[in-house]
Structure formats: structure tokens, C-alpha cells
Amino acid sequence: MTCPLQSTRACNLALPQKDTNPIIRPDIDWIPSYKVFKERVQRLAAQNLNRPTTLPAGWPAKITSERVWSGSDFKSEDDYVVKLSQEDILEIESALEYFKTLDLGPDDVSKNNFPLPDLGPKLEEVSDIIHNGRGFVVLRGLNSDKYSSTDNILLYLGVTSYIAETRGMQDFDGRMILHIQAVRKESDVAQHGSMPNSPYVNRAQPFHTDLCDVLSLYALGVAKYGGESFLASSATIYNEIARLRPDVIHILAQDDWPFDEFYKNQYHTRPLLYNFSSSSSSSSVDGRRKEHHGPGFQFSRRPLTGAHFSPHHPLVPAMSEVQAEALDMVYFLAKEHALEIQLQKGDMQIFNNFAMLHARSSFVDEGEHNKRHMLRLWLRNEQKMWRSDSEGLDKVGREVYEWDKEEWRREVGTKWDIEQSPPELRVDFKRASCA
């Protein structure tokens, strides 16, 4: 069995022999304190550190593309919501009924057997927006209550196959789709002695990325209160840091960030920031215009900070004070420039995981009809995918999207949970590859 999905250059590092000197860690939380952050900035500035004043070689001074935006740039939902017409919905339903006559399963859904002759080209345009434009879209118009649990999954797979057809495996049990809902309230966590993975409680989640190329959420249900989605442009965050603190770009791009995997006493190190080159569809062979995407993030705070109720293994190395400053700087810039999105029941929110960070507010469910319930897919478009020179990041991609090339994963096979989230034991003890 290989290392966890976030494995990279140092994934096989065994924990060092116990040292008599305790590890001193920075004062940094999963959801950070602005006061602590500003005090750290001032304290480090007073130390007159020998900080680089220029960017690392090969990194752009500024990203100039449609994916550079701030939340205030959007005047209304119409700027990013694609509304499905009644004709579009009827076409989706017709394709669903056709697929169901083929006696196939979720693994088999593709553009070839889910025909959308009129909507398909529109979804291809959505795919271009996600990969080469602002980076995100909300599809609106479906009524998720109208369909069975199985039909909701099948039509979801059919629609998204026109945007990014390859689907990733999201955990070690072979799950290809996750039900993001509150299995347990945060207020009940303390008595259990451990904190469930972030998708399965109702608390807020800080800005982070997942382990995929494209992330998709289908809102089967929304909470009575809260649960807002927040997106922030990684290009805007990069531009601000590159302009004001080029030394922090050096820190973020170094491969010495210690990620605690909580997995067989292992940890690994890798960068938080990567420089993406071109899409695979940009080759000169087919004559298409080359897209140079530039810097993007790939990290979550939990294995870096030791999440609440999930402290670091005592022998995992501590991040440095300058790393703590850089990590919180990314968070507070994301918060400053974020777009808040109130998803409606039936919405599909689809975005480029490398082009932005995402977060979520806490929420309160009420009864059976006001419960937040998202279906999550990890997607890839083989022609438009972003590419990096990082072997570590490529390894993550192979483990998520080329799982069938590993014998142990072929033996596990794929799993499709149709109705609900995994049982609580898995929520507590099996890592869900997210924030």
C-alpha cells in the first residue's frame, strides 16, 4: 500500500527517534487569529531578517488574466451563475432516461452515453471558463427534490462529464463521490474525544484547497442558516504577496512544509505554492493557443497546524515562525478578496481547485427539509488540465485520477454511496482527504 493521497517528495519519511527536547510550535490555529498574525508580522519585521527582495527565478511579477479578481468585482449573481433553461432541464432528463436503459452504473457515465446535443456545447464553454477564465461557475435551475438519490447522482455525473470527464478517487475505501453533510454537531464533539473530518461537522472551514484539479459540489439540500460558500482567487492572493512581500513567495514555494498525515506515524514535506505552465491542449501539434496559467496553491491547514481535537504527533517537525506568517498571510488575503456565494438547492458549484481557495461558514440544520447536503466530485479534464513541473504534485494527481494503475486500489474497487455519508467510525478514523 502506498502513502496517503497527499504524499510527495518526502512521503516515506519515518518519524525521527524521540528527542528529549520538546518541539516548540508557533502559536497558530486552524482558523487563525488576526491579532496573533499581526503580532507575528511585527515581531519578525523587528528582527531585521535577511529577506529576499526579488521573486524566485521563473516566477511572474504579476498574473494578468481573467482569474485575477476580487469579490467586489462581481455586481450580481448573474456574473457567474449559468441558468439552465426548461429546455436544458428536459434534455438532461431525457439523457438520464436513455442512460438508465443501458443497464450501466455510475462508473460508466460519459458524454458518449449521456447525450446533451444542445446543452453540451454550453457546458464546454463552462469548462473553458473554469480552466482558462475566472475559474468558477454555478449551474442553477435543477430541482434536486424531483429525482431519486440514484438519479441525482447519475444526472450529476452526466452534466459534469461535459466539463471534466475523468473522476478521482477520494479516499482509501474507493469512494468516488462524497456526501458532505453534518453527521455530528460541533457542540457534541468534545465528549467523543476526537474531531471528525471537516466535511462531516457543521462548523466553519478556513480557506484551503482539495487534492483535485476541478472540484464540484451539487446542492441536494441547504441549511436553515449559514453554510455560505466562499471563493478567493489564488492569482489575486499571489499578486498581492509578490508586490508587497516577495520574500513570502520564496517561503510558500519551498518544499520543507511539514504535513502531518496522522497515518502510520508518517509525515511529508512539500510546497504550498506551485507554478503551473500550460494545458495539455496547448501543444503546437494541434495549433491551439498556449495557456500559461502561472502560480496556484495546493494545501489545507489541518495537517499543517494540527486541527482542533487532532493535535500533531509529538515528533512531527514544527513549522517555522516565517512559515506561520506566510500561511496566515494567505488566509487573510483570501478572506479580504473572497466572493460569498449563497448556494440554492439544486445548484452545481464547479471550480478550478488550483485557481482559487475555498471556505465555508458554519451552519444550522433544521428538520428534514433544511439540511445542508452536498455531493462532492473530484474531476479532471485531460485536455485542459493544468500542468506543473512538480513531481510531488504529479504524484498526487496520479494517485487520485490514475488509481486503477495500482494493484491494491484495483482490488478495493470503486464505491458509490448513494444515500448518505459514511458511518461515524469512518468519519472519526479514516482521513477524508480534505481540509
From TrEMBL:
Instruction: Name a GO molecular-function annotation.
Output: oxidoreductase activity
The answer, when asked if Oxidoreductase is one of the entry's keywords, is yes
From the Swiss-Prot or TrEMBL record, give the protein name: TauD/TfdA-like domain-containing protein
> Is Oxidoreductase given among the entry's keywords?
yes
Q: Which UniProt keywords apply?
A: Oxidoreductase
Matching InterPro entries, A to Z?
A: AlphaKG_dependent_hydroxylases, TauD-like_sf, TauD/TfdA-like
Where are the annotated segments for Disordered?
280-302
Domain (TauD/TfdA-like) ranges: 104-378
The residue range of the signal peptide is none
Record-linked Pfam families: TauD
Fetch the PANTHER family from UniProt: FAMILY OXIDOREDUCTASE, PUTATIVE (AFU_ORTHOLOGUE AFUA_4G13850)-RELATED (PTHR10696:SF54), GAMMA-BUTYROBETAINE HYDROXYLASE-RELATED (PTHR10696)
